[in-house]
Every structure is written in C-alpha cells, then in structure tokens.
Write a structure and sequence with these properties.
The protein is an alpha/beta fold and 547 residues long. The protein is built from 16 helices and 22 strands. Helix content is 31%, strand content 17%. Bound molecules: NADP nicotinamide-adenine-dinucleotide phosphate.
Length: 547
Amino acid sequence: MSGPTDNRDGVEPVELDAVVIGTGFAGLLALHVLRNDLGLDVRAFDDAPGVGGTWYWNCYPGARADTEVTAYCYSFDRDLFDTWRWSERYPRQPEILAYLNHVADRYDLRRSITLETRILSATFDEDVNRWLVVTDAGERLAARFLIEGVGLLSSTNMPAFPGQESFTGEIFHTARWPQSGTSFAGKRVGVIGTGSSGVQVITEIAPEADHLTVFQRSAQYSVPARHGAIDADFLASIRADYEGYWQHVRNSITGFGFAESTTPASAVSDEEREAIFEKWWNHGGGFQFMFATFSDIGVDLFANNAATDFIKRKIAETVTDPETARMLTPTDLYAKRPLCCDGYFETYNRDNVALVDVRSDPIVEITPRGVRTTNAEYDLDVIVFATGFDAVTGNTLKIAHTGRGGVDLADHWAHRPTTHLGLMTSGFPNMFMMFGPMGPFTNQPPADEVQIEWIADAIRHLQKTGMDTIEPAAETESAWVATCDEIGNSTLFPKVDSWINGANVPGKPVTIMFYMAGLGAYAERLREAKDNDYPGFRFTAPARTPA
Ligand code: NAP
C-alpha cells in the first residue's frame, strides 16, 4: 500500500521529528521545548507575517490582556521573568507582542519558523507512522509528531450580513486589524459586538471618533479592570518565592495568580457580601470578580444572582440616561467568560455615543452608507466587527486532518469535538493539540506550560519504550468527554450562549467544550496519566524500519 509520505513527483517530503503549527504562546513554547530541550528536529509554521499568534492579529485600538501580567507570561525561565520589564498590570497588545518576539529571539527560535505559510493538510501515513504535512507554499513535510498551537481564540467569526460588499466605507474585524493601524478622527464609526474585544475597542474609539454607534446584541456584565502599574509589593513577593507563586498559579482554578475564594456567597451576611463585591469591584478584573469574591458564582444561582444584582446596580449608578442604562443591563446569568474594562459603561454618557439594541431591532443589511436595522439606517464611515471567534475548533478544522483509516477529523468531530485530556484524539496518533477541545478553561500561558511538559514527557516515554506512536483509545476519549460533560453541566456556563459552548457561531455544535474543574485539577489529571504510564492510551511499535 502506498502512503501519502511516498515520493510524489520525484520530490521527497522533508523529514522532521516534529511540525509545530502556530507561533503564539503555545507554538513558541512547543518549538522551544521540543527543539531546545528534547533536541528534536522541529519546524514551526504560522500564516501571519510575524510571530505572536492571536497577539499578532488582535492589534485593534484598546487591545490588552485582562490577566495580571505576572501570570500572563512564561514561568519556565526565571531569568526571562526577572529581566523582562512589563510597564503595566494589564499590558497592551504591542507590549505582549514585543515579549513574544523577545522570546523568539532569546531562544533562537526564528531559524526554525516559517512565516506567511499556512498548513493546508496533515495526513497520517500508517505505513510509516508519519504525518505528511502540506503547506500552501507546496512544501511537503514528513514528521513523527504534530503539535498544534493554532489558537483557542484566533479563527474569526464574521457574520455574513447581506450587502456587506456594497459598503463604501471601511470594514475591520478586531481580530484581523491592519498592522498599520487606522485613524477614527472625524469619522462615524459603528461597532458590532460587545464582548471582551468590543468593550475595549468601544472605550478606546469613542473619544477619537466623531460619532460612535454601538450595535449590541447582548448586554454584558463588565467590571472595571483598574489598569495601572504592577503592584511593587506583589512583584517583590513573587520574586521572593518564585516557585511558590507558580505552584499556586498551577494549583488554582483560573491560573490567574490571585487568591480564589473558598467561601460560598450564602455563607456571609448581606452587608459582608456587598462589602466583598465592592472590594473586588475596586480591585478590578473580571476573573477576579467572578472567582475571588465567592467560590460559587459560576455554579450557584443564589451566588450568581448576588453578583449580577451588584453589577446591575453599578450600571444604573454609572449610566446617566435611564433608557441606555436599561439596554446595557444584562438579563441573563453571569456565565460567559468574565470581562473587565475601565470606563466601559461611562462611555455611554458621551454625547457622541449611541447604543442600538439589535436583539429588539435586528441588523437587516449592510448598505453602501452604513447599517440598516429593522427600524433605522445608520450612516457610517467605518464598521468594526467585534464579533469574536469560531473558538476552540475553528482553526483546527481549517486544516484537513486525516487520521488512521483515512478518517477525516471533521467527520470524527461532526457531532461534537472530542479529545482525551484536551490534548489528543483517538485515531490521530502523535497529534497533540495545545488547548484543544475539553482542555482547561483557564489563563493560557501557565496551562500551555502544563500541557507542553506532558507532551514532552509523552515523547520521552516513547523514546524510552521504543514505541512509535501514542494516542488515546476511543473509550478513554469517551470517558474524558463524559467527565467534562458532568463537570460542565454542574456549572451555569452551559445555560448561557457564548463561544464557550459554540453557540456564537451559527450551525456549530452547541456543547461542552472545556474541562471546567480548573487548572489545578487538570494538571493533576495529566500527572496521573504520566505517572501511571498513560492508562487508556494505545501505543504502536515502529511500523517499518526507516531506510
Ligand atoms: P465574543 O466574546 O464572542 O463577543 C462577540 C460579540 O459579538 C458579542 O457581543 C456577540 O453578541 C456579538 N455578535 C456576534 N455575532 C453577532 C451578530 N451576528 N450580530 C450582532 N452581534 C453579534 O468575542 P470577543 O469579544 O472577541 O472575545 C472572545 C474572547 O477572546 C474573550 O471572551 C476572551 O477570552 C478573549 N479576549 C480577551 C481579551 C482580553 O481582554 N484579554 C480581549 C479580547 C478577547 P452575543 O453576546 O449576543 O453573542
């Protein structure tokens, strides 16, 4: 039987140990660990003209992290942590991109990275246990390992409103913002979407634009971020106990580095509860507000209602026009990815900002002049889509993956995406997905480190045992999915439509897509798998002695 790694047109595929797809936080780390620590022959690819992944593309005005940066970075190299100087608690996109470029230089990664090159397909050749990877430049690579860091939140969600191509002004998506930037001075701008990207871009554009119209489908529970300098005492405490700090991050639920509450909202008096919410409202941070106030906001209706009542009161106090305040007040549970932004609700007090509720007055079409809803037409010079991502699976499924027996990953996942440990899927040997479906719902850089350590250990295990491939058995994968379902369904997150469950993209399966027990529990599951020699995984011996 001839396999896809066979000679085609007289051109042998380039032999490698591993192909890494993506050069964001996950891909750069994977390349460094596999090439510099394990000594493998690795190449990484990214379709962007620069490294940085989602932080390359998301250069919209106002883009910044909303994780305190002391936990939004790598920890594996203490010297990197000590020598890189962040300017702010929540750095802006250019600073994060500069950090990732510094990482690429510091570990000499660029010589193994091919940019502006998209991976089109990855086909597993069972004859030789190799992945044949084909790029859009026509290059063919045969690699034993495929490591995908393609971005949980990277593939854009671009709604197709009728007439979009007729618009005579400019159209941008926050996640594909022009690197050259753009000016809004003197312009009438419309922003569609009010998620994390939307609240940031809205708040940043409003003072610059002549007029801003926000098209809101769902009101948001946004809390202040409280941008500012990194707390010097906090930084000193991390430096004094570096290992302890990162152990705390890795053992936590969110991986954010703050102390998560262990107190249910119902365990305190009304006055105490109000004081705790007030304290964290003043401290800033969305995950902090959800997880540092009380232990059960994401799982218990009483706690969730207490949090939403508090935020609703803040909206009413902040927004001066009662009708605008009403439209900005969410009516659903507080169970989307929590967001934060300084000055978001205050923006609607500006004379040059108008809010349109597109749930009651839907967008009908984009016209040459702007946006037409059922009730009105809005003349615009610029339309900004802050409509988010085809999250979790979007970029993975853009690559045509063919596993054992010619099975297409899209078919394997037709009903819903499945993995074991958020890392591997049955029938696709030696293919590791960093932040694949059913991975942890946490801050990413520390979780990337937990995952790459596991991947490196799995590769070492193959080397030690003389085996060629590893993959989860189908029943192991089903058991992990059942675990994720059980945990996910015990939370309030499936009750609200969002990218977390796939409900933001029309036609996408709406399902549990995360392991919602937190980073600490997740890391423990990875440790168990490794320490017990990978129960529930299948291994194969080398299929053919390489020539
Ligand atoms: P998002 O949270 O999915 O928000 C998309 C927004 O667009 C929502 O308001 C959504 O309304 C709206 N929308 C989507 N399709 C629409 C349509 N056809 N008509 C009208 N409105 C539509 O996306 P995001 O804001 O880009 O954020 C996604 C995730 O990326 C975040 O949750 C976060 O994890 C990450 N992120 C982080 C930061 C940061 O601060 N570090 C910044 C940006 C993004 P509905 O709510 O009704 O669906």
